[in-house]
Amino acid sequence: MIPLTGKIILPFKIKTAVCTVLVLLLFWAEQSKSFDTDHTDKIVNNEYGQKGSVYLYFTNMDNSFLYSEQRTFPGHLTALSLGGKIINALIEGPKKELVHTMPSGTTLQAFFLTEKGVAVVDLSSDIKDRHPGGVQAEKITIYSIVNTLILNIPEINAVKILIGGRESDTLAGHIDIRYPFKADMLLIR
Q1: Are residues 146 and 69 in the same domain?
Q2: Are 109 and 124 in contact (CB under 8 A)?
Q3: In terms of Cα–Cα distance, which of 11, 10, 155 is closest to 77?
Q4: Which single residue of 9, 33, 84, 134 could bond 111 by disulfide (Cβ 3.0 to 4.6 Å)?
């Protein structure tokens, strides 16, 4: 029998330590990619006044910019309920001469806020399946949602869009929607 010496055990311990560190790093990296959406008890619960005016952003006939349309939602609303009402009003479309930014048939499946101020908007697959396509139309649709939420609800600082309850690479083949968006003021006229 050959006695084990420190020369054999030391490399084994180093390899084990390195593997453990790699596994922990991979686990941490995977966890940091996902959103912290399991904090329903910590959802923002600020109330807005009796007659809260908001500005919804729709497009014009040439689909080049976003224009605001004022709406009023009666009653006291939390940031969460106001966000849901805003998205449903965007889906419903403009009341004046502006143009829809979301295709017909689109529905809101879920809306929630993370404790980090990210609004997560889960829309039905109709938003993707019935979208007219094109870079500009896709951009207008995304920022209609993003700008409307961020500019009307102070607790929201970014917006993540899901389609059919899942992440999607793009809305209509051009713009990466895997990550949250910030407002783009250059699109507003």
Answers
A1: yes
A2: yes
A3: 155
A4: 84
Domain that residue 10 falls in: 1-33
Based on the fold, state whether residues 143 and 69 are members of the same structural domain: yes
Measured in degrees and rounded to the nearest 5, phi and psi for residue 71 equal -135, 155
Cβ atoms of 80 and 113 closer than 8 Å: yes
All residue ranges of the chain with pLDDT < 50 are: 23-25, 27-47, 49-50
- Pull the structure tokens for residue 147: 């700008």
Question: Do 56 and 111 belong together in one domain?
Answer: yes
Which is it for the CA torsion 127, 96, 60, 182, positive or negative?
negative
Within this chain, do residues 18 and 73 fall inside the same structural domain, yes or no? no
Both 13 and 45 in one domain: the answer is no
The helix-helix angle for 79-92 and 135-152 (nearest 10°) equals 150
